[in-house]
Amino acid sequence: MSDLRVSLACGAYDRTAPLRDGRVKPKGIDLTYLTVGPAEIFWRQMKYEEFDACELALSSYIIELSRGESRFVGIPVFPSRVFRRAYIFVNVDSGIERPEDLKGKRVGIPEFHMTAALFIRGYLSDDYGVTAEDIEWVQGGQTKPGRKERIELRLPPSIRIRHEPHRTIEDLLLAGEIDAILGAYTPQCFVDGDPRVRRLFDDPAALDREAWKRTGIFPIMHLIAVRREFHERHPWVATNLRDAFEEARRVTLEDLSDHGASSSMLPFFQLEMERTIAEFGPDFWPYGVEPNRATLEAALRYAHEQKLAERLVGIEELFPPSLLARHVD
User: Fold this and answer.
1) What percent of the chain has pLDDT over 70?
2) Percentage of the chain modeled with pLDDT above 90
3) C-beta of residue 179 within 8 angstroms of C-beta of residue 105
4) CA-CA distance, 162 to 145, in Å (whole number)?
5) Quick one: pLDDT at residue 262?
6) Taking each helix axis from N to C terminus, what angle separates 58-66 and 293-305, rounded to the nearest 10 degrees?
7) Residue 326 has pLDDT above 70, yes or no
8) 52-69 per-position pLDDT tens digit
9) What secondary structure, in 3-state letters, does 216-229 show?
10) b/e 141-160 (16+ beta carbons within 10 angstroms → b)
11) According to the model, what pLDDT value does residue 97 have?
């Protein structure tokens, strides 16, 4: 019997490189790895379900689950995770000096439901008492105008969002027409050194490290998901894909640990690797449910508190029973 052909759309990450280059092959699967950027993947999959499996935004997945209409089945593999305290930027004349000063302000956002914003709003609420209802949101493209939400939102009036179709939120920030922006990318105006814009936090990495030690939350942006219709016909594929991603991660970690010939162009990469392992442990990018329980439970709670999820989704709903626990050899 020939292997089952499976299309997988995912970003070009170091932890997935062994799957892309064929060093790791999922059992029983003839894998077509399509290297596509996350934003394009999400649009094509959420609108048209083009791929058998793909990288998917955690927030979108939770929202659909809460509505009882999920078209996808999650796999506890997380190709993208990012600490996010570095991604709040303010106009220097806005009067915002502390996170609490965001209350009552106008804040630009590429998409209200995006997972980066989910976690940023979550820690603003948990650590500083600033809730989603405290801010006037302006949704629009960050570098190109006209961006819209990839998923239909069903928010109560207490969440105030104005769509801006004609101008970018970066332009609005520079003009002082909004006070801050947050999202997944560093604004180009900040990269260019525009003096009108600065980060809210002077040392976001230190704050993220402190928060991780306190809460165990290492924000998950994306998971791998299989189309539900495909999963129902081939339920074994999810497990085999999970195992292949695990093996690819192991191979990548070996590559990164080569102290003789660094795999990265960063000049002090090996020292950073040593620091990361000392601080986070050798399994610093874990897959599976239990090592990520604190993060997943936080995401589910944030989605409910921010009125994105129509009910509080249980962690046991995220993945099929066969993937909720590791098998014992």
Assistant:
1) 98
2) 95
3) yes
4) 14
5) 83
6) 60
7) no
8) 999 999 999 999 999 999
9) CCCCEEEEEEEEHH
10) bbeeeebeebbeeeeeeebe
11) 98
Q: Which amino acid is at 42?
A: F
Measured from the Cβ of residue 182, the count of other Cβ atoms closer than 10 Å reads 24
Residue 101: Cβ-neighbour burial (10 angstroms; 0-12, 13-18, 19+): middle
Pairing state between β 160-163 and 4-10? unpaired
d(CA 121, CA 112): 10
Tokens coding 102: 């965001």
Spatial distance between the Cα atoms of 53 and 186, rounded to a whole number of angstroms: 29
Angle subtended by helix axes 115-128 and 58-66, to nearest 10: 80
Exposed, middle or buried: residue 281 (CB in 10 Å: 0-12, 13-18, 19+)? exposed
Give me 188's structure tokens.
């180009």
Query: What are 34's two structure tokens?
Result: 């399509």
User: Given the structure tokens 């094509």, which residue do they identify?
Assistant: 44
Which tokens hold the place of 310? 């129509």
